[in-house]
Amino acid sequence: MPRFEQQYEEWLKSNLENESNHRRKELLVKGLGHGTVEFLRRVWFPAIGNLDHLFPEWEVRDFNNGYRYLDLAYMPGGVKGGIEIQGYGPHARDLDVRRFKDLCRRHCLLALDGWTFLPIAYPSIVEEPKQCQQLVLSFIGKFIATDVSSTLTWLEAETLRFARRVLRAFTPLELAHHLKVTDRHARRILHQLVKQQLLDVASGGQQRNRTYQMRV
Predict the structure, then answer these.
(1) Which of 62, 56, 53 is nearest to 19 (CA)?
(2) Where is the R3H domain positioned along the sequence (predicted)?
(3) Closest residue by Cα to residue 166 from 119, 118, 134, 190
(4) In a domain, 196, yes or no
(5) Core-most of 45, 83, 108, 210, by most CB within 10 Å?
């Protein structure tokens, strides 16, 4: 994916050039972990199309005045979203009690400090990238409103925002309850957005679409 490779190199270079913290800079010079790079390549970039507002190896302080580093921090407009790639070996198969407790404590401290945390298992990146992309879209939807075309009606725009916030495919009836419109009206909106290639049909036949999801 040449476009990804080019943006990735520019993004990493920009983070290095703009970093004055020597601890974080040392980590960046060493290069990002394989899992982080594959997450960006297979999941984040195909879903989002850019690496804006992402900061690798982001330093955070814990409650013991120590330093911890997030694989990726997502911080548009000052909000705090943390992403960590959980490798199968060190984080699951070979995890001892001490490291397991430290991992749980780490997640707790981040949550108490106002971070919204998204852990991603490396096997899911490889085996289920589309599902991970849906998680990323929902993760981003917690922080920013979905950019929508000015040609869309208010109900169509709100439908896209709703699709981005939920973590799964949704039914026309769920959308109808959210928009406070009839089921028939919700289906018309969904049909129009599918026609514009802004939503995908997640399940159901051509005659009766049952569930919908954000296009990735």
Answers:
(1) 56
(2) 149-216
(3) 134
(4) yes
(5) 83
Where in the sequence is the domain holding 161, given as residue range(s)?
154-214
Is residue 51 one of the residues assigned to a domain? yes
pTM for the full model?
0.68
> What string of DSSP letters covers 63-102?
TTS-EEEEEEEE-GGG--EEEEEE-HIIIIIT--HHHHHH
78: left (phi over 0), alpha (psi -120 to 50) or beta: left
Regarding whether 197 and 90 lie in a shared domain, the answer is no
In sequence order, which residues have a C-beta less than 8 Å from that of residue 111 and are 6 or more positions away?
117
Q: What is the pLDDT of residues 76-119, one digit of tens each?
A: 877 899 999 987 654 455 556 777 777 778 778 888 888 898 99
| 59's tokens | 């330093």
